[in-house]
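Human: I'm a chemist; would you kindly supply sequence and structure tokens for a protein?

Assistant:
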Amino acid sequence: MTATALDWRKGLFGNKTNIAITAGYAAFVWWLVVPFLQWAVVDATLHGTSETCSRDGGACWAFIVAKANFITFGFYPADVRWRAAVACVLLLAVAVAICVPRFWSRWLAAFGLGGLVIAVLLLLGVPPGQIVTTEQWGGLPVTLLLSVVGLAGAFPLAVMLALARQSRRGGIRMLSVVFIEVVRGVPFISILYMATLLFPLMLPHGASIDKFLRAQVALILFVSAYMAEIVRAGLSSVPRGQTEAGEALGLSYFNTMQLIVMPQALRAVIPSLVNLAIGVFQDTTLVLVIGMFDFLNTARAAATDPQWLGYYDESFAFVAAVYFVCCFALSRYSLWLERYLGRPGAR
């Protein structure tokens, strides 16, 4: 028996505690996992109608196949859904480019901003075509747009807030502290309600701002407060001597931060930043409270179709699988990025 096999055997059955834990996991698998696989795989229906699913009794994945377009794009007009699909590809391309270290250059900001602008214009129906208002947006484009723009927009604001909180100027530092602590002390749902219900009351008579834009700005401000504290923790981890070394070389404050301090600070907080990104991606589901339909909520709405009424288990299971794949990929990316940046000569 190999050493690896002996280690596995010792870990599973090495003592009474390990045996009890192994038995507990086996009982859990038998009690929950096996019935789930029976429902989701063995007895599942992949093709057919609602009547077929009712007769077979297992998971009705035929419902997901039939409602895939609605779950993905919501109430977006069917004849121009190609625009929403292209916008999703652009948003994913921007997200991937931001995550790849070899693309980290001065051109990345221009590419990201250009990709986001083109994605928004496509969703709106521009260049000339059928104009699609934000009330018709839904599904995956809404989730991706809120997440990508929310994180990309919050990052520069968070860096400024973190630097301001460490500023020697009391007024600037106080403003940063007040903003961060107030926003972090209020639930995100409350901020969404304020942006949707209270903010319009403050505008002059006849003036209005799109609800999606208000929700996006609210998300950016909310995320920036949490991200600012993460960045500040990274700045605090950099020895004071690094800043003094930059000053000794004649570098300005901003050049010292950009070239010496900030790269070390951000490298130290990669796990926290990725964890925040995962949380933001999941928190986009809260926009339901202001009448917007993201990916989760379009899946829930799909189960209210009279022809497929009641297939909520399949809807939530499908969406949960998509969210798990995305969040698991982000967690693996975090580990890879730490190893990559830890190599000698890595940027």
Summary: Residues 312-341 form the longest helix (30 residues). The radius of gyration is 25 Å. Residues 78-131 form one domain. The chain has a mean pLDDT of 88.
